[in-house]
Amino acid sequence: MKKALSIDIGGTKICYAIIDENGEYLTAPQKVSTPKSAEEIFSLLSSLASEYDEQIDAVAMATAGAVNRDNTRVVSSTPNLPSGYNALDFSKISSKKVFVENDANAAAWAEYKLGAAKGCDYSIVVTLGTGIGSGVINNGALIRGKSGAAVECGSMKIFADKRQKCTCGRYDCWEAYASGTGLRRCVQSMALSEPEFSTSMFKDKNIEDLTTYDVIDGVRADDAFCKKVFAQWLEYLYVGVVNLVDIFDPQCIVLSGGMGEFIDVEQLENRVNAEIVVQPVKIRLAKMKNNAGMIGAALLALK
Ligand code: BMX
User: For residue 261, is pLDDT > 80?
Assistant: First the structure.
């Protein structure tokens, strides 16, 4: 049975584990904070690869950022990753095969092979985290595009009149509204505009300190203001999902990320199906939660 050291690299944390070609964990996933510079990330990855060198056949990486067609490096990324990251040649971290894939593409592969999209040769995974990631399976294969970078749908524009700047420096990317970070922006701006904030459980908190977690806690506690914020965030999510379904005509869309459990998936599915021009779609929550990227990267690396 072949094994990979699989590493998921995000802007805030790096997770890793040894995973076999069936997607089973051979070691418990471990988590470390993402170092602040590209050089430190590279040396951390190199030392992990040498630590596990004798136990593995390959190093698999799921990373934020658009990955090249050779699956060796990132070709473009938002400032959620440190400057210099795109220049790193990951094939140099180990003498073993190193396979790099975009985190959401890897998650899409894992959900297709083992999770919520199993059996759906036409499926999409949307990851709702710091940014919005997406991976599209078309006829049983990932859509890669001419440079490997296809379907960075967090960068899809949802307004044309420059309402909100995105972390990438452009305006009105979908992820500026419907990511986890988007929910934080939403709560902070609605705290200024919505009368319900004055009776909210968070009314005494500094507006700039309101977080995504506050909204989630408020929704759990039935707080009217937080429910209104979450409903607005869901509208942003809905708009993007409709666009994706009309473009790719998938059998199912899988939503992944911590906010998933608060989404009324059935209601979202009904609304989306009432709007689209293609045939009806199923909307599901991810089965593998935050580990899908690591598992998908390992499956792809050992394929
Ligand atoms: C951004 C982009 C994608 C990534 C997605 C989810 C960067 C650094 N990231 O749209 O490549 O798939 O975020 O990333 O360019 P996460 O950080 O939310 O996991």
Answer: no
